[in-house]
Write a structure and sequence with these properties.
Layout lengths: L5 E5 L2 E5 L2 H9 L2 H8 L17 H9 L10 H4 L9 H10 L9 H7 L1
Antiparallel strand pairs: 1-2
């Protein structure tokens, strides 16, 4: 594989992580992709890209105020069957499952609400 790139074959497909150039290279050289294209089939590809620029103290403060919910994630959360309706259903499913945990009302919450 590419330097700085990780990948794994799983029940629900293949995942690759790393820098953008490494991920694109892995997708272009995937032997399964060639077979799919030759058969005229379409494959679903999900791309998750994120960038956060908070300091540790700022993020902890936002969690303490109840602005963020935290929950353990799983590969099943990310690698779900493709849904043309959009990935917002993932968030809805997490919330309805009750998995996200929010900070209880506290002094920091009251400071923001005043």
């Amino acid at each position: 594989g590419q330097q700085g790139q990780q990948g794994q074959q799983g029940q629900q497909g293949r995942w690759v992580s790393g820098d953008l150039a490494g991920v694109c290279s892995a997708v272009r050289s995937d032997p399964d992709r060639v077979g799919i294209e030759a058969a005229g089939e379409a494959a679903a590809v999900s791309v998750y890209w994120g960038d956060a620029r908070w300091s540790r103290a700022q993020l902890l403060g936002e969690i303490a105020r109840g602005h963020w919910g935290c929950c353990a994630g799983s590969t099943a959360d990310i690698f779900r069957p493709h849904d043309p309706a959009g990935h917002s259903q993932l968030w809805d499913a997490l919330v309805s499952s009750g998995r996200p945990v929010y900070a209880p009302v506290n002094e920091m919450t009251e400071q923001v609400e005043e």
